[in-house]
Amino acid sequence: MPVRSIVTAPADGSHYPEGTRSIEVRGAAWAGDDRVARVEVTLDGGATWVEAAMTPPRNRYDWVRWRVFLPLPSDGYYELFARATDSQGRAQPFHAANWNPNGYGCNVMHRVAVTVGPEV
């Protein structure tokens, strides 16, 4: 199975008060028979990445828990993407390249949208 990661917090559509300049992002990652080498998060479409800290898995096939404090440059709307990379150097893509009707091959990056500032 391909490497994958999910964002467990914040929830999609979360809103933060005006002036918030950092948020905690948490999630889990899994790499099947390989190990998760790293997890990174971006809020600018992949131009820059922030590496997350990972908790060691409880066993070889356990999901790795990760967390990162992500700096926010200003108020506004952001789409956060989490990308896991396995020990073979394979990373999650932005778009599905190996899709099938049941979704078994889908390992696209998980996306979560957040807004900072006054509610509209």
Labels describing this entry:
4-stranded antiparallel sheet, single chain, globular, 120 residues, 47% strand, Immunoglobulin-like, 5-stranded mixed sheet, mainly beta
CATH class: Mainly Beta
Unreliable segments of 5+ consecutive residues: none
- How does the helix and strand content classify structurally? mainly beta
Mean pLDDT: 92
Overall spatial form: globular
SSE order and pairing:
Elements: E1 4-9, E2 14-16, E3 22-30, E4 36-42, E5 50-51, E6 53-55, E7 64-71, E8 76-86, E9 110-116
Parallel strand pairs: 2-9
Antiparallel strand pairs: 1-3, 3-7, 4-5, 4-8, 6-7, 8-9
Walk me through what this model shows:
With about 120 residues, the chain is an all-beta fold. The protein has one domain: Immunoglobulin-like (Sandwich). It has no helices and 9 strands. The protein has strands at about 5-10, 15, 20-30, 35-40, 50, 55, 65-70, 75-85, 110-115. The strands form 2 sheets. Strands 2-9-8-4-5 form a 5-stranded mixed beta sheet, with no helix packed on it. A hairpin with an 8-residue loop joins β6 (about 55) and β7. The radius of gyration is 15 Å and the shape is globular. It starts with a strand and ends with a strand. The model has no long low-confidence stretch (mean pLDDT about 90).
